[in-house]
User: What shape does this take?
Amino acid sequence: MSVRSPLTNFHAVAVTNPVVPPKPTLAVSSKAVFVLMSSVDADSFHGSPREPSAESPTQEIIYRHSGTVRWTHWINVLCILFLLGSGLNIFNAHPRLYWGRSGADSDHAIFSIGAVDRPDGVHGLTQVGPWQFDTTGVLGWSKTNGEYQARGWPSWLTIPSFQDLADARHWHILFAWILVFNGLLYVLYGLYARHLQRDIWPTIKDLKAIPSSIVDHIKLKHPVGEEAKRYNVLQRLAYLGVIILITSMVLTGLTMSPWFNAIFPYTLDLFGGRQSARTIHFLSATLIVLFFFVHVAEVFLAGPFNEIRSMLTGYYRVPRDDAARGPDTTEEKNG
Ligand code: HEM
Assistant: This one.
């Protein structure tokens, strides 16, 4: 019997042993790809229910992430990594940020990375608003192939590692368009399957639970039973936030492009000019990096094997809560 949880549309499948039931795999065969990509079920959360193999009093395995969510998630991760690396290389061509319509070396920068020659040697200097930091060795003045060089971001962070604006732009634009089409697929699927409305968008009840969810996170208390089958409010807000950040990154990126300005000149006014758009682009990317570290830390705190497996295969192991492990379960089993 396949069990649909009342709290969520994750499909629960009870098992007796901790072995994951048979499933579609990520093996690269056209059949497998078709199975994963076609698992859109407009009436369910993440794909179609699976037949159970048996029941377990301590845990159950649910089908948590549909093929479309899994594929678009990992393509998105790849795009973001390439976009960040190539973006930093592009940034190095002029490592200063301004606010407004124009910006040049003589204008006041709100953020800059540079190198200064001092009596005791060259130093890397990073300026954020009115503050300045000595960032020698990492930002402004760092080693490339064993030799110190004046460059904004260090070579180990940029794509390509050597300074090349044209190459970096090619990588950036390629992955930007993959990100756009992949993102559109995710959003359209998410709206069609009601995944965004049901599982990402927080309800009023969710929002009221923010304080208790923060306390649970601080105490590293992980949900069990029905509660573990749905995203908690902080997850919902983080995922919604990163979708907004990626949208902002795409819009500000397009706003910096002259062909886009020719078609939609008003986006320059919307963001307050090309230099403001560049600064917002950089800020959005910075917040995405912040999301990345918090997100990966949460994955590791919640149990990396179960979490990452669920994003690879779709299947997720949920510990039952004490009530579900009680005599009722046994009775049901015996019945
Ligand atoms: C910047 C890069 C990343 C972004 C923007 C991102 C974004 C997201 C989003 C939006 C979701 C929710 C998907 C949905 O249900 O619609 C998600 C879930 C998830 N992500 Fe990522 N992710 C990133 C990197 C990673 C990495 C590197 C890992 C692996 C360590 C990872 C592991 C997961 C897992 C396991 C889930 C499912 C969590 C659960 O079921 O509770 N993500 N991610």
